[in-house]
Amino acid sequence: MLQSKYNIYSTHLPTHRTMPGLFYCAIFILFFLSGCASERQAVPENLSDSAQIIGIPPDSRAVWGQPNSVITQDYCSSLKKDTKDCFSIDDQGNKTYSVLLISSGAENGAFGSGLLKGWSQSGSRPVFKIVTGISTGAIMAPFAFLGSAYDQKLEEIYTTHSTKDVYRSKIIPWDSLVKNWPLKRLIDKYFDKQVLREIAKEYDKGRRLYIGTTDLDTQQLIVWNMGEIASVGDGTALAIFRKIILASASMPGAFPPVYFQAKANGKTYEEMDMDGGVTKQVFLPYNVLQSFKKASENQPGMNIDPSKLRYKIYILLNTFSDPVWTQVPDKIISIVIRTIGTIIKAQSIGDVYQLYAFTKLGNGDFNLACIPKGYIRHDKEFFDIVEMKRLFDLGFKEASRGYHWKKTPTGDLE
Fold first, then answer.
1. Side-chain half-sphere exposure of 387, counting CA atoms within 13 A
2. How does pLDDT run across 62-92, given as a tens digit for each residue?
3. Percent of the chain with pLDDT over 70
4. Which residue, among 198, 88, 98, 101, has the nearest Cα to 140 in the 3D structure?
5. Which pLDDT score is estimated for 24?
6. What separation in angstroms does the CA of 291 have from each of 224, 284, 311, 343?
């Protein structure tokens, strides 16, 4: 759940009463506490590409940034299964898909959730061919994927739960500063068997839901095909589905890592996954980034003219797109918080620029939503219900009357 308001966005740095300041110092504290080598059996480097997570199909995940035949074939399969509500066709016969990408942002996800509900209210929200989520976006993405019928779930998640519902303090910070069982309990509550069945049904229609986590051993973004995992349908698949969301929303150092049992070369290992926001703030699978044309050409049974494929990319950036001025106190904690926050913000803008370039080079339409410049927060705790309600209402108000999507990464309107 990377990118809280304290690291980049707020004009108020945390006080002694708040935890987030310690979050960004976690790596430094844990460095001094870790005097022993880990006994965990990590997947060896030479086996990392062939390791398979136990309990899910072997082709249900991939490493971002590398050509991958699994993602390509799955994507082409999705194009063959198109239903009419997944695209629009203009007078020239161009087929246009809508794609939704949801960023990190911790409790700022309240803004994106409100925007989704307001978008539904406006009557202009499309059925998305692809939905991806990172960090807090990983919690939002499955419900955004399932459509407006789940807007109420998102509103409940982001407007009725406070800090105590997300984490609890820890006496000995060995692998993390806080306990994550409250967040795990929330995920178990909202992502049940019914949600899994609904996602599997949409997957069978040709729609795709991807969640990103970071494999800390390999320093790579792992892209999980959540629809294929949901299609397994058993208790193991549900448990792994929930673990993926928990991992993507777990800030390193602050929250404990999430482990997946992996098999490689006949042996069992533990893969350590955490916040997808460590490697990407917003993403599309690599093969989709290479354009619809490359993913669909020379594929038997496609019956699609690649030159006729179009796409609209909608990015829900649960942050500001502009710099936010703050007078930083000359104290080490404040300096570290602001520095790391600035790095994360730069990464976020870079990721958005990459997607912008992709749309400009291909047959795409770029659309960006973000928290309005000048918005001032008044938080009293990390997950402040009152503040999250304000953000939710702001997103809803702006979208319900017809959201003015930004057409460039800097937020300028064309």
1. 19
2. 888 877 788 888 888 888 887 778 888 888 8
3. 81
4. 101
5. 47
6. 19, 11, 10, 29
Enumerate residues 6+ apart whose C-beta is below 8 A from 81: 204, 205, 206
Beta strand 309-317 with 95-102 is: parallel
Phi, psi of 195 (to 5 degrees): -60, -40
Backbone angles phi, psi at 55, to 5 degrees: 105, -5
Alpha-carbon span 1 to 251, nearest angstrom:
6
Residue 401, phi-psi category: left (phi > 0), alpha (psi -120 to 50), beta (remainder) = alpha
Residue with the two structure tokens 């354009």: 291
- Tell me phi and psi for residue 96, to 5 degrees: -115, 130
Distance of CA 339 to the CA centre of its chain: 23
- In angstroms, the CA 311 to CA 314 distance is 10
- Annotate 71-137 with DSSP letters as a single string: HHHHHHHHHHT--GGGEEE-TT--EEEEEEEE---GGGHHHHHHHHHHHHHHT-PPPPSEEEEETHH
Angle at 413 between CA 409 and CA 414, to 5 degrees: 100
Give per-residue pLDDT as tens, 295-328. Answer: 666 666 666 777 778 889 999 998 876 777 777 8
Contacts of 233 (CB under 8 A, 6+ apart): 196, 197, 200
Answer for the pair 113, 396: CB distance below 8 angstroms, yes or no: no
Triad 229, 231, 235: Cα angle to 5°: 75
- Locate 200 and state its tokens: 């599997």
> How does pLDDT run across 91-143, given as a tens digit for each residue?
888 888 899 999 988 888 899 999 999 999 999 999 999 999 999 999 999 99
Is 400 strand, coil or helix? helix
Neighbour tally for 86: CB within 10 Å: 21
pTM: 0.86
Instruction: Show the CA angle centred on residue 51, arms to residues 49 and 52, nearest 5°.
Output: 125
pLDDT of residue 21: 47
What sign results for the dihedral spanned by CA atoms 310, 316, 319, 322? Answer: positive
- The CA distances from residue 264 to 219, 232, 258, in Å, are 19, 21, 19
